[in-house]
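Write out this protein's structure.
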Amino acid sequence: MNKAKLNFIIDIFMFICMMLVASIGFLIKFTLIPGREAREIYGRDVDLFLFGMNRHQWGTLHLYIGFTLLGLLVLHILLHWKMIVALYRQLIPSPKIRKRGSWIFVVVSIFLMVFPFLVNPKVVDRGAGKGYHGGSKIYKGQTQSPIKKTEDKPQSSKHHGNHTVS
């Protein structure tokens, strides 16, 4: 297969991967909405599925297609390397500035790739049984937790079959 045909095939697959990444991203954001938003719309806790997959499974597929796109991008760059170098030399005639620009590009690229592995998320304890709505998150101008605290009242025990329920 000649280089032009290979480039064309790679470009087609890159375009398909880009459209899939965008489409699945929109699907996760706007259709397979998270539990809090689904609760507001449906009035109860529901699980949303499309073609037998929930939003987390679609997210995994989104990630794998993104990796595929990155691999195709590397192939695309390798196949166009001579053209990229020639255009870069024309765009920035000074070898000194070209070298600095190249190093900055490489360092920024590596940083962006490893950044997710270097950071730690903030961990906030929600408390038992409070789910996402627990804690002191502010909703629509409220300054208190959206969950009302109930007074602890002693409850009588009831006997149901082999289980005692409080």
